[in-house]
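If you are new to this repository, start here. Below is one unmodified record pulled from the training split, so you can see the exact layout before writing a loader.
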Amino acid sequence: MTTLAHRVFKIALFIGLFLISVRYIPLSNEWSTSETRAWFAASDLLGVRDPDDLYFAVWLTIELIAAVLAYVAIVKLWRWYRTKSLRL
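And here is the target side for that same chain:
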């Protein structure tokens, strides 16, 4: 039962971190001329019809990476704290 609770807590922690990263790493609405050209070139190269779709996929990937890095850091800090407190 505790294993299930740990897994549920870890999943909730990751989802919470992902939602926080989505909230605080904003999606840019305005592109400069050079950025527009770059996104159109990248979407043509990858075969994506709309550059906004490609931009959203890249943005979502960055959000996932940020959430994973925060999750890994929290888990490592928690394990370090627990081993340190057990020695006392």
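Two things worth knowing about this chain: The chain is about 85% helix and 0% strand. The mean pLDDT is 90.
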